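Entry type: protein chain
Record version: 2
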Amino acid sequence: MTGTPLTLPEELLLLALEPERGRFLNHARYLRYGLAGAALADLEEAGRITVGSGDRITVTNPLPLGDPVLDGALAALPGPDKRGRGIKAERWVRRAGRPVQELCVRRLEQRGALRRETRRALGLFPYARFPAGAVDLVGPARERFAAALGAGFPDRRGRLMAALASATDLDRRLLISRGYRPVRREMKRFAREFWMTHAVQRAVRQDKEAASHAASP
């Protein structure tokens, strides 16, 4: 089980995880958008989906891949509407973020990489924490990201991870010093290159704008 390659959404979740406290480094909702975008990236790579005009997603091959995370995401993609159009990427990213996160958590629990702990805020409101399990996958995920960073993100997967980290504001927590500003600008450019990470970027930006308007007097 632990030797099975990680999907991109699993890798992103591990990269964002604080293993001791079981919390995420970046905003939980932004991360969920990123996980959905990462699933789209893997499905495109596997030839299961394409994107057309207006960033609308079309399922081109509904056959399962044999991976619970990606197969769950694929099954959650709706068929074409009455006009024969697929769902917009940003809309799906918003809709599917929480289910994709749950798929990732279950899979990483099975791998022994994390544990789920349910707690209650003020003794009333349940919430979850995901501290590291017996199998360390967070450390290797961060090592792979550091190696890709050091090499200038030379391959597609590395650029996608950089793009997802930027789109979800995770880069601000992973690359804190001022010396990383040029790298973070490059990662932001990556986020605009890929249609699915651009959709994540737009969803996050709209959330920030809505929060800013709500806070205005």
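Comment: The chain is about 55% helix and 10% strand.
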